[in-house]
Amino acid sequence: MAKVVLERLRRKFGDAIVETSSELGDDCAVVAREKLGEVAEFLRDDRELAFDMPIDCTALDWFQKREVRFDVVWHLYSMTKKHRLRLKVRVAEDDPTVPSLTPVWRGMNWHERETWDMYGIRFTGHPDLKRILLYEEFVGHPLRKDYPIDRRQPLIPLRKVKDVPTAKNPPKSRLNQP
């Protein structure tokens, strides 16, 4: 079914679709970085494609295995058409930036933040690109293949956290109430 998606993408965007593959129902399109936003909007808005559910965003690090170091990967699904697609953009180490797809699918917000945090891929146009898994003072991006396994991170003082009301710790205004 998704081979139809790959054909439509090739017809609509021509050379902006760098490469496609389809093996065992695993359909993938490699897109030119400068056309990513346009391709994503087409995938979402076209009635025959209707990719309405972003599943994930991550990256692959091809350190010392390929000239272009990173692939940024988005997994997409159409709830109504029941097809899947893996969208990729190849990104060089000296300019690890891609357009954010958060304006197209709001659900990509945290996925893009995680990809930034772990790989150091910057998403231009992202509404709040900051670390999501690691603390702000953390140095580097630990899922990069060249990240030193024995690297020590700076210790930071414990931060004061406000008490969060729970059943075991209710706010004073809720004491002695059902």
Q: Can you walk through the features of this model?
A:
With 178 residues, the protein is of the alpha/beta class. The chain has helices at 2-13, 36-45, 109-119; strands spanning 17-23, 26-31, 53-61, 70-77, 84-91, 97-99, 122-124. The chain has a domain at 2-124: Beta Polymerase, domain 2 (2-Layer Sandwich). 19% of the residues lie in helices and 25% in strands. The strands form two sheets. It has a five-stranded mixed beta sheet. Strands 6-7 form a two-stranded parallel ribbon.
CATH superfamily of the domain at 2-124: NADH:ubiquinone oxidoreductase Nqo5 subunit
Which strand order spans the largest sheet, edge to edge or round the barrel? 1-2-5-4-3
DSSP helical segment count = 3
Residue share in helix: 10-25%
Q: List the helices and strands in order.
A: HEEHEEEEHE
Shape: globular
Termini gap? 55 Å
Q: Strand pairing plus helix content: what structural class?
A: alpha/beta
| Biggest beta sheet summary | 5 strands, mixed
Q: What is the CATH top level name of the domain at 2-124? A: Alpha Beta
Name given to the CATH architecture of the domain at 2-124: 2-Layer Sandwich
Note poorly predicted spans: none
